[in-house]
Q: What sequence folds into this?
């Protein structure tokens, strides 16, 4: 199942509400996760089952969507949120999106 | 605390083999599926293999099927990735991971990764 993320690069200011998009090539029944990866680190799970917040993740992160269209929202961007974000489906094996790189404006 | 520690990476010539290991601790290893994921330098993430709890079922994407073999030793809390017929496009950091279970099938825990470089 192909996963397409947009945009590939996003510039935003501290305090902005940021929205990242992920589209699946077919219905993935909400079996979607979001990860944050900072430079030189392993990815960190933020959201699973499309909208469930992983333990220990700040509440400014939220996930939404169903079927084929999904969104990761950061309600108020913080400097430490600068990273690349990946979506991943686990409805059929595992496939990752190409990533969205989030930088500060 | 869950810990996953990968070892075995390094420089290898095209066509040769390499075996990666991932030692797990902090959870009941034999109760969880385990996974390998890789990331080529500056690129995205690619799932490489999965293995069920007793090692009886394994899964791979087409890109590595027939060349890579995942296995596990539940007595040693270790999962392995045997990589044969390596190609330059297999150059990547290889991570082992486990899901957050139950009902959380995202990769909640990752190792630090081990770099495999395939080059002559």
A:
């Amino acid at each position: 199942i192909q996963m397409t993320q947009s945009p590939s690069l996003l510039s935003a200011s501290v305090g902005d509400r940021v929205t990242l998009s992920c589209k699946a090539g077919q219905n993935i029944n909400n079996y979607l996760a979001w990860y944050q990866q900072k430079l030189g680190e392993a990815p960190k799970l933020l959201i699973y089952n499309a909208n469930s917040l992983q333990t220990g993740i700040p509440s400014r992160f939220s996930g939404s969507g169903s079927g084929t269209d999904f969104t990761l929202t950061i309600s108020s961007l913080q400097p430490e949120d600068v990273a690349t974000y990946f979506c991943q489906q686990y409805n059929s094996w595992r496939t990752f999106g190409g990533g969205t790189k989030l930088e500060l404006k | 605390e869950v810990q996953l520690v990968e070892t075995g990476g390094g420089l290898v010539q095209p066509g040769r083999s390499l075996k990666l290991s991932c030692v797990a601790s902090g959870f009941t290893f034999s109760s969880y599926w385990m996974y390998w994921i890789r990331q080529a330098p500056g690129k995205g993430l690619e799932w490489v293999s999965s293995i069920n709890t007793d090692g009886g079922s394994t899964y791979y994407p087409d890109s590595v099927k027939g060349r890579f073999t995942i296995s596990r030793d539940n007595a040693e809390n270790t999962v392995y990735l045997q990589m044969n017929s390596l190609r330059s496009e297999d150059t990547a950091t290889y991570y082992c991971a486990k899901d957050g279970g139950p009902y959380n099938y995202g990769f909640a825990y990752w190792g630090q990764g081990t770099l495999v470089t395939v080059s002559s």
User: Anything to note?
Assistant: The first strand of chain A starts at residue 3 and ends at 6. Chain A has a mean pLDDT of 97. The CA atoms of residues 28 and 91 of chain A lie 5 Å apart. The two ends of chain A are 33 Å apart (CA to CA).
